[in-house]
Design a protein that fits this description.
Number of helices: 2
Order of helices and strands: EHEEEEEEHEE
Structural class: alpha+beta
Radius of gyration: 21 Å
Strand content: 15-25%
Shape: elongated
Length: about 140
């Protein structure tokens, strides 16, 4: 028989149960999708990049601030396209989304991300600089 530890004369704490369905709302992520990896795709510039390890992922960034996320399987891809972020904070926000979904850096980096979790910015090489806005549920 297992015995309890602690002070037998002390009254037990009344614990309040948190609602399991309550989840911290995550910020919408701004990103750009490319056919090729614009940040780490060029081996000549790879050694000039800054990097930061954040929650197991590696975030590579350029002097201009653009960055990408790498895991065990290489650069992050969404719907088969390479993902680039306008700044490090946006990359960190997407990593928070992955962790909320239970995803790890050891899994495949070719992932599906629901369109309501990000705003796809237009590439500067494209003619129209407007962004595509998706509605976010619960944000």
């Amino acid at each position: 028989m297992q015995h309890k530890r602690g002070n037998p004369r002390r009254r037990s704490k009344k614990r309040t149960q948190q609602n399991v369905t309550t989840m911290k709302s995550l910020e919408v992520v701004h990103l750009i999708l490319h056919q090729t990896d614009p940040v780490t795709g060029n081996e000549d510039t790879l050694y000039t990049l800054f990097y930061e390890v954040y929650r197991g992922y590696i975030i590579y960034s350029t002097e201009q601030g653009q960055c990408c996320i790498h895991g065990k399987d290489g650069c992050l891809r969404i719907q088969g396209k390479y993902v680039c972020f306008p700044d490090v904070e946006q990359a960190k926000n997407l990593i928070k989304h992955f962790q909320a979904d239970g995803r790890t850096p050891q899994e495949s980096m070719n992932r599906y991300v629901p369109e309501d979790e990000y705003i796809r910015l237009k590439n500067s090489r494209q003619r129209d600089n407007r962004s595509t806005r998706y509605n976010v549920v619960g944000a």
